[in-house]
């Protein structure tokens, strides 16, 4: 079994693709079509609409109860925010950059351009952050944080 | 489309709370004449800051429209607060 075929079967077993997509990919492989192009075709193009942040903390101390946070931010608002950043006057942008630099963050606000916006939003498709931790300082309470797009 | 309604919810430790629907469109209607009166001054300020007033206005509108379907719900120690824009 060659490497590409094994990769497709692994994608199928992990649920990244379904049986039909796997079949298409294998067929494309046999025809000699590049797998990356076929995978791109078979991948459903999803348009993310919201950025979700979920926090679930089971605090059990006598002064604290459980904490639950459920935030849904429309991506449209993020788009507008990026466009808004583009309107910041050049002098103010330099000051913001200086402040970032002082805090040790090498971040250039001038790089936030509406032209890069679609690319930025597209990258959010794959964003998933899962944090599952025991908060040792607070009697071993469990904290779950999920950040994802939907 | 800008948000027209907002749902606010609040609950205390003892379970007492309320949820209300707030007609945001009434706020927009009240603010409209004030914004229209202030618009020339805002345009001048934007102009002075070398910001294109029309694109700034457009972005402000987009930001306002982007607020639609925002949902914030925080619960701590059996107290909770909810804001939902529709």
Task: Put the structure in a nutshell.
Chain A is of the alpha+beta class and 150 residues long. Helix content of chain A is 45%, strand content 23%.
Describe the structure.
Chain A is of the alpha+beta class and 150 residues long. Chain A is built from six helices and four strands. In chain A, strands 2-1-4-3 form a four-stranded antiparallel β-sheet. In chain A, β1 and β2 form a beta hairpin. In chain A, α1 runs antiparallel to α2 (19-31) and α2 runs antiparallel to α3 (35-42). The model of chain A has no long low-confidence stretch (mean pLDDT 76). By secondary structure, chain B is of the alpha+beta class. Helix content of chain B is 45%, strand content 31%. Chain B has two helices and four strands. Chain B has helices spanning 24-48, 53-66, and strands at 5-11, 17-23, 71-76, 79-85. Chain B has a four-stranded antiparallel β-sheet with strand order 2-1-4-3. In chain B, 2% of the residues are buried. The chains are: A alpha+beta (150), B alpha+beta (86). β2 (67-74) of chain A pairs antiparallel with β3 of chain B.
């Amino acid at each position: 079994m060659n490497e590409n075929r094994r990769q497709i079967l692994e994608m199928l077993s992990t649920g990244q693709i379904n049986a039909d997509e796997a079949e298409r990919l294998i067929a494309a492989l046999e025809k000699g079509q590049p797998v990356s192009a076929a995978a791109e075709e078979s991948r459903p193009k999803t348009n993310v609409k919201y950025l979700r942040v979920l926090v679930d903390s089971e605090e059990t101390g006598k002064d604290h109860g459980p904490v639950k946070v459920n935030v849904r931010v429309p991506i449209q608002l993020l788009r507008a925010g990026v466009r808004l950043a583009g309107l910041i006057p050049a002098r103010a942008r330099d000051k913001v950059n200086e402040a970032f630099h002082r805090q040790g963050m090498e971040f250039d606000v001038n790089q936030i351009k509406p032209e890069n916006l679609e690319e930025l939003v597209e990258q959010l498709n794959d964003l998933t952050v899962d944090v599952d931790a025991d908060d040792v300082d607070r009697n071993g309470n469990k904290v779950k944080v999920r950040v994802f797009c939907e | 489309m800008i948000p027209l309604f907002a749902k606010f919810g609040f609950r205390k430790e003892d379970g007492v709370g309320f949820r209300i629907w707030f007609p945001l469109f009434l706020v927009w209607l009240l603010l409209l004449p004030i914004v229209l009166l202030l618009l020339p001054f805002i345009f001048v300020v934007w102009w002075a800051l070398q910001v294109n007033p029309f694109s700034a206005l457009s972005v402000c509108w987009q930001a306002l429209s982007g607020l639609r379907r925002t949902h914030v719900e925080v619960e701590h120690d059996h107290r909770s607060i909810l804001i939902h824009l529709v």
